[in-house]
Specification:
Shape: globular
Number of helices: 1
Strand order of the largest sheet: 1-2
Low-confidence stretches: none
Structural class: mainly beta
Oligomer: single chain
Number of strands: 4
Radius of gyration: 14 Å
Order of helices and strands: HEEEE
Distance between the termini: 13 Å
Mean pLDDT: 86
Largest sheet: 2 strands, antiparallel
Helix content: 10-25%
Length: 77
């Protein structure tokens, strides 16, 4: 039931628009933005950014996480 989020974040926002604009989010102090309607979230520390053709690859070290909807089934992509 969340394929619209997959499409939204898979393509990225239009230039100049915040990726989270118009979405229901939490903004915990000292943490990244968390979408309230997701199954869970991972918190990462930056581990580097590398050019890859016409993209950039960002690496992160997972340092924490939280389940938000443990009864839901994940969408595997």
């Amino acid at each position: 039931g969340q394929t619209q989020l997959l499409g939204r974040f898979g393509k990225g926002p239009p230039p100049g628009q915040c990726a989270f604009s118009g979405l229901d989010v939490d903004r915990p102090e000292g943490e990244a933005v968390v979408l309230r309607s997701t199954l869970g979230c991972l918190f990462c520390r930056s581990a580097g950014r590398f050019p890859a053709g016409d993209h950039e690859v960002y690496l992160g070290e997972v340092v924490g996480g939280r389940m938000l909807l443990p009864e839901a089934r994940p969408y595997v992509h």
